[in-house]
Every structure is written in structure tokens, then in C-alpha cells.
């Protein structure tokens, strides 16, 4: 424990180095702006910031992106509560109670609860992250290929069962992502697969291209199709924006909600593939089912604000655990942070955790500082932040397009990569039109190479004995959980249908 | 999800299944020397493509049987409960697909012309055309955004981030070089 605190202390000193501290502040500001703007999602914002970090050192680059991730879970709350404009999908649950409080003239109070929820949820999850990371990294050192494959499989199946909409479509999206990762030269045998002799495909399809294209350009095409909207602050009543902090008695009444939502956020964050949006919705749903005032949820009560906001921010600490200890991203934003690590020539995992602990703990320290910093910025600069809403969505989208293209160019200085971006932009648009979620596609393309290499290593090491995945205790349990996660929703819906038809007859 | 007829609902699954079948065939004919008793580089893609074909079949059956595609309610939807009916005020019912297609055409043209006319002009034209396509009509903002955007991106990424943005071919190359000199770049 003492050595963890020592490392963390050194991490704080590292973050206070001028460049790292500047990266932290810039990241927090960017994250808040991105979260406020309805046309720009948090993951998209982090993707677009990635090219700017090429010239920075590794620590500053990761601190900047992590700060964006942290503050991005908070900024969207302002516009959701004040103007009924969710900056991010994760902010949608805030509309149901937060906006109702604002309509009753309690906007300042609602914003105060949001600030506390982000602060408490964030700090609890950051503390849990610091305490759990070292034991998990130590455990990760003892795992071998079958266990790694099982963990990755669990992440892949969880993104299918936790994502909204059709499970079959999500599964197809995931498989497509996994398939994309097989294009190019196979790492085990050096055999070219599905490249058709094209150099651009021989190098493989970079998941950054999939992510920037499908999330960034795809979203812009969708918005272009639906018509850009530019809500003006004058139209939505942008006057009198301020935050009033709740008193101790009010906070004390929400102890259980804070605890429940923090745990949900951390657990959802740890599951690879599930991020702040899922944490926010699940926490709101759980509060509606088990909360002390569950019958009033949706009517404009603080629990309806605290539950989703606490969970959303606490998912950050949870999502950082698998990334820093095993090199497996726990959410869309951490997938990009993983990309930043790889671009700087470092593969996060247990080895890096113990051999380059100064970087790991600097990132951890930056999360603590980021959470406190975003609350201070949010409290004092809320008026300035919501002014961003005055920016025309068409202009913001035009600049997003440029960031997508330049981001692709910056990675390898190859114009052929722009074709990839356009192709995946069109794919992202088609996915939206036909109801296929994008998150499994992206996660599949990120985790695909890891999944394949661990799968092949296992089969080669154990003479093609595939039962090893089930007979080794850890991998067996995790694979059973993966299968359960995949079939449980279908079984439950089948059971409900049978029960309903039984009642009808 | 677009389309209400069974054909429209099954179409995407059928298309993905056909493409998967083709790639499965390619995976089966990979050019490598197999080693006895050892799995080859075709195994992993074949598993993925096999599962994809199976999932598409389920999707087609669901699309034919159901009034609208469900394919099993997700755990997330069950837990959140209100996501389907809560209403966030962001639903958009009207759409203009031709605008999306025109936008895609614009992006393709940009990539095609970038190497020929260079980053600065190509980007300025793209931003202006995109704003116009997005039915934004404030001319002052369009001109300012396209000029500030293209020159700003050019300066930041060439001078500070050191990204080798395309300069174009003559006569556009001379213009790019002149701009670089004006901006103090070598």
C-alpha cells in the first residue's frame, strides 16, 4: 500500500511538470467543450485530438487525452439540464430529472448535484483504480494465452449484450470489426490475407481509420442527411446560468445513491467495451428499480441526476484498470488512449505497469487532478462553456471533417489512408441507416489482433486442443460468463414471451 | 432503421452474407504451405466469417418473421428500461438522403483532388462547399470559415505538428510554396 502511495506521489509531481500540467488543463477544457457541443461526441473529440498529441511526449499525450475523457463525462450535463440538449448520449438520463428540476426553477441546484456527483463518483473510482491496478497487474502477469483470449472474448460479448438495439445486428457489427482486423499480413505465419495485392491493404486496416471514419465522418454524414441544427442560446433561454452546491443534509440523503452508482460505474467501466453511456443508463435504471424514492424517479428528483452522473464519471477509473494493467481498453475513449500509447511505441500491460510505473502513476494522478479541475472549471466557467452552443453545427461539422482527414494523414502521411476514412465514413452512415451499432465494429477491429494472436498461440501451444479454453479454471469461468452474457437476454425475452402467451391462454 | 418491407429488412443481411461467403471462399484458398497437425492462418477468419453467415441467417429469419427487427432485446435496454420510451427530444424524423450522397461525393472529390491542387485550395473549397451543402447560407461565415480553416490547419499542422500536407502540382504548387514562405516555413 505504501509503495502505491509513493508511486502516486511521484505521479503527482510528474503531472505538475509544466508541459504535463498544460496538457491537463487543455485536455479538461477540450473535453468540456466537446461534451457541451451536441454535434461532437466524447469519443469523436478524443479521436480528433489524437493527431495533436503526436508531437508531445508520451506522458503529456496520455494526460491530455485522459483529461478530455474525464471532463467529457461531465460537460454535457450543463446543456442537458439547462436547455434539454444532451451533449452526449450518456447525458440523456439527465434530461428526465435534471431538466424537470430546471423547469421548476431549480436549475442551479440541479447543476450543484451534478457537480458533486461527478466529483464523488470520479474520486471514488480513481481511488479504487489506484488500489486495484497493482494486484490486477500482478495477476495479469500469471495469466497465459487462454485466459487472455477468454478476457477479450468477454469484452467482445459484453459489448454485444450491453449495447442498445438488436443483438443480432450488434453481433454482426462485432464480427465485421474482427474480420477487418484480419486483413493484411498475418502475424503468426506472415501470410497475406484479403489484401488483393493492394499495398494499402497489405499493411492492414488501422483501427484508428475505422474509428475516425465510422465515428467521425459517419456521424457528420448522418447529421448532413438529417439537416444541421443550430440551437441559439437566445432561443433556449441562456440567461442566469449558475451552480448552487447542495448542503450536507441534502448530500447525506443521497449516500446510498452515490455508493450504488459509483460501484455500477466502476464495474461497467472495467468490462471491456462498456463505457460511460452504458454506466449512466444502467445506474439510472437501477435507481428507478431499487432507489429509496424509486416511485418518484423521472419527476425531477436529485437521485435521477446523481445516479447517472456519478456512474458516468466513475466509469472512467474503471475503464482505465484493464487498459493500464492488461492493455485491454474498457471503453471507446480508452481504445484511443491505447492507440496513443502504441503510437508512442509502448504497449500498456503488466510489464509496462511494473517497468514504467512513473508513466502509469502520472496518468493515475492526472485523473485525480482532472476530476477536481473539471469541477472547478465547470463551477466558475459554466456561462462561457454553454456559449459554445452558439457555434453553428454546420461549421463545427466542417471542421470535424477536416480533423478526420488531417488525423488520417498525420498517422502515416499517406493519402491512401484518406480512402479508408471515407470508406468507413460511408460504412458508419450505412450502419446507422440499417440499425447496426458502430461500437462493436470499432471494438472488434481494436481487439481483433489481440484475440487472434492469443487464440492461435493457445491452439499451437496445446496441439490444437480447443478444450483447453474450457478446462483451465480461469478461462473456463470467463468463457462461461461470456456465453451467459450473450444468450441471457434472448433466453429472458423468450421466457417472457412464453409467460405472456401462457397468461393470455 | 429504414425501410418497412420484408425485402428492405432482409437486404442488408443478405448482402453481408453474400460478401462473407465470398471471403470465406478466399480464406479457404489462402496461399500458404500448411503444416501437418498445425492450425493455419485461415482458421481465425473462417470462424469469424462462419459466425457472420450464421448471424445473417438469424437476421434474415427475424426480418421475415417479425414485423420489425428485434433480434433479442439487449441487457442494456432491459436494465435502462426507459431508453426506448423516455424520449430525449433529439429524435429526427425528416431526412434528406441526397444530401448525404452529395456529401460523400464531396469527400471523394476531396481525396481525388488533394494531391493535384494541394491542401490549401482543396480544403478551402471543401469547407465552403460542405457548408453550402449543409444549407448554411451566411456568406461571411462561409468565406471566413473556409479561409481561416484552410490556412489555419495548414499553418498548425505543417509548422507545429510537422504533418506533410500535400502541396499540389503546378501551378498550385507555386501558390502553396508562396504561402509557406509568407507563413515563415522553409
Explain what this protein looks like in three dimensions.
The complex is a heterodimer of chains A (505) and B (186). With 505 residues, chain A is mostly helical. Chain A has helices at residues 2-15, 18-36, 42-49, 58-83, 92-103, 107-142, 145-162, 167-180, 199-202, 207-226, 233-236, 248-252, 255-270, 276-290, 303-326, 332-343, 350-355, 357-380, 382-386, 393-412, 416-433, 439-461, 468-471, 473-504; strands at 184-185, 192-193. Chain A has a two-stranded antiparallel ribbon with strand order 1-2. In chain A, a hairpin with a 6-residue loop joins strand 1 and strand 2. Chain A is globular. Chain B is mainly α and 186 residues long. Helices cover 65% and strands 0% of the residues of chain B. Chain B contains seven helices and no strands. Chain B is flat and about 65 Å long. The N and C termini of chain B lie far apart (52 Å).
Structural features:
heterodimer; A: 505 residues; mainly alpha; two-stranded antiparallel ribbon; 24 helices; 2 strands; 1% strand; globular; B: 186 residues; flat
Secondary structure topology:
The complex is a heterodimer of chains A (505) and B (186).
Chain A: H1 2-15, H2 18-36, H3 42-49, H4 58-83, H5 92-103, H6 107-142, H7 145-162, H8 167-180, E1 184-185, E2 192-193, H9 199-202, H10 207-226, H11 233-236, H12 248-252, H13 255-270, H14 276-290, H15 303-326, H16 332-343, H17 350-355, H18 357-380, H19 382-386, H20 393-412, H21 416-433, H22 439-461, H23 468-471, H24 473-504
Antiparallel strand pairs in A: 1-2
Chain B: H1 6-28, H2 43-65, H3 75-80, H4 97-117, H5 119-133, H6 139-160, H7 172-182
Amino acid at each position: 500500500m505504501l509503495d502505491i502511495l509513493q508511486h502516486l506521489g511521484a505521479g503527482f509531481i510528474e503531472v505538475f511538470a509544466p508541459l504535463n500540467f498544460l496538457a491537463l488543463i487543455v485536455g479538461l477544457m477540450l473535453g468540456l467543450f466537446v461534451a457541451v457541443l451536441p454535434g461532437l461526441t466524447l469519443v469523436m473529440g478524443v479521436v480528433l485530438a489524437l493527431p495533436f498529441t503526436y508531437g508531445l511526449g508520451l506522458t503529456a499525450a496520455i494526460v491530455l487525452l485522459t483529461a478530455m475523457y474525464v471532463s467529457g463525462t461531465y460537460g454535457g450535463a450543463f446543456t442537458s439540464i439547462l436547455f434539454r440538449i444532451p451533449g452526449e448520449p450518456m447525458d440523456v438520463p439527465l434530461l428526465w430529472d435534471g431538466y424537470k428540476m430546471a423547469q421548476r426553477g431549480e436549475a442551479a441546484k440541479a447543476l450543484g448535484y451534478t457537480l458533486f456527483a461527478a466529483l464523488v463518483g470520479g474520486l471514488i473510482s480513481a481511488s479504487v483504480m489506484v488500489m486495484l491496478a497493482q494486484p490486477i497487474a500482478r495477476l495479469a502477469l500469471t495469466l497465459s494465452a487462454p485466459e487472455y483470449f477468454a478476457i477479450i472474448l468477454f469484452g467482445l460479448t459484453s459489448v454485444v449484450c450491453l449495447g442498445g438495439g438488436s443483438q443480432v445486428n450488434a453481433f454482426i457489427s462485432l464480427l465485421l470489426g474482427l474480420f477487418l482486423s484480419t486483413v493484411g499480413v498475418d502475424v503468426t505465419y506472415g501470410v497475406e490475407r484479403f489484401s488483393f495485392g493492394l499495398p494499402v491493404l497489405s499493411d492492414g486496416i488501422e483501427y484508428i481509420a475505422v474509428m475516425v471514419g465510422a465515428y467521425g465522418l459517419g456521424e457528420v454524414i448522418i447529421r448532413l442527411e438529417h439537416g444541421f441544427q443550430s440551437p441559439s442560446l437566445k432561443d433556449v433561454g441562456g440567461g442566469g446560468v449558475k451552480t448552487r452546491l447542495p448542503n450536507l443534509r441534502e448530500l447525506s440523503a443521497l449516500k446510498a445513491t452515490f455508493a450504488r452508482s459509483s460501484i455500477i460505474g466502476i464495474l461497467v467501466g472495467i468490462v471491456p467495451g462498456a463505457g460511460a453511456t452504458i454506466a449512466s443508463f444502467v445506474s439510472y435504471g437501477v435507481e428507478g428499480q431499487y432507489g429509496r424514492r424509486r416511485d418518484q424517479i423521472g419527476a425531477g428528483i436529485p437521485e435521477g441526476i446523481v445516479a447517472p452522473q456519478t456512474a458516468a464519471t466513475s466509469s472512467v477509473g474503471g475503464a482505465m484498470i484493464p487498459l493500464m494493467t492488461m492493455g485491454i481498453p474498457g471503453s471507446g475513449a480508452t481504445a484511443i488512449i491505447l492507440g496513443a500509447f502504441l503510437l508512442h511505441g509502448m504497449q500498456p500491460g503488466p510489464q509496462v505497469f511494473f517497468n514504467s510505473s512513473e508513466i502509469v502513476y502520472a496518468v493515475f494522478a492526472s485523473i485525480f487532478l482532472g476530476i477536481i479541475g473539471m469541477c472547478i472549471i465547470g463551477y466558475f466557467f459554466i456561462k462561457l462553456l454553454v456559449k459554445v452552443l452558439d457555434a453553428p453545427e454546420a461549421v463545427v461539422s466542417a471542421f470535424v471533417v477536416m480533423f478526420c482527414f488531417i488525423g488520417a494523414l498525420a498517422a502515416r502521411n499517406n493519402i491512401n489512408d484518406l480512402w479508408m476514412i471515407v470508406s468507413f465514413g460511408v460504412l458508419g452512415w450505412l450502419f446507422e441507416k440499417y440499425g447496426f451499432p458502430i461500437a462493436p465494429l470499432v471494438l472488434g477491429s481494436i481487439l481483433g489482433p489481440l484475440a487472434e494472436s492469443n487464440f492461435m498461440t493457445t491452439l499451437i501451444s496445446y496441439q490444437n486442443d480447443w478444450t483447453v479454453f474450457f478446462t483451465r479454471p480461469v478461462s473456463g469461468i470467463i468463457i462461461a460468463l461470456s456465453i451467459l452474457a450473450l444468450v441471457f437476454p434472448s433466453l429472458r425475452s423468450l421466457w417472457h414471451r412464453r409467460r405472456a402467451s401462457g397468461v393470455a391462454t | 432503421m429504414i425501410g418497412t418491407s420484408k425485402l428492405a429488412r432482409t437486404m442488408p443481411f443478405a448482402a453481408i452474407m453474400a460478401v462473407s461467403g465470398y471471403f470465406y471462399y478466399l480464406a479457404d484458398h489462402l496461399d500458404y504451405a500448411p503444416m501437418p497437425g498445425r492450425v493455419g492462418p485461415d482458421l481465425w477468419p473462417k470462424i469469424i466469417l462462419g459466425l457472420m453467415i450464421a448471424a445473417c441467417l438469424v437476421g434474415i429469419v427475424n426480418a421475415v418473421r417479425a414485423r420489425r427487427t428485434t433480434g433479442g432485446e439487449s441487457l442494456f435496454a432491459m436494465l435502462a428500461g426507459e431508453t426506448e420510451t423516455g424520449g430525449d427530444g433529439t429524435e429526427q424524423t425528416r431526412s434528406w438522403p441526397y444530401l448525404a450522397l452529395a456529401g460523400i461525393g464531396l469527400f471523394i472529390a476531396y481525396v481525388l483532388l488533394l494531391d493535384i491542387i494541394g491542401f490549401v485550395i482543396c480544403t478551402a473549397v471543401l469547407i465552403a462547399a460542405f457548408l453550402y451543402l449543409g444549407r448554411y447560407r451566411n456568406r461571411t461565415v462561409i468565406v471566413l470559415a473556409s479561409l481561416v480553416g484552410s490556412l489555419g490547419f495548414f499553418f498548425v499542422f505543417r509548422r507545429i505538428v510537422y504533418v506533410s500536407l500535400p502541396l499540389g502540382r503546378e501551378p498550385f504548387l507555386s501558390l502553396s510554396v508562396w504561402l509557406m514562405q509568407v507563413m515563415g516555413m522553409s
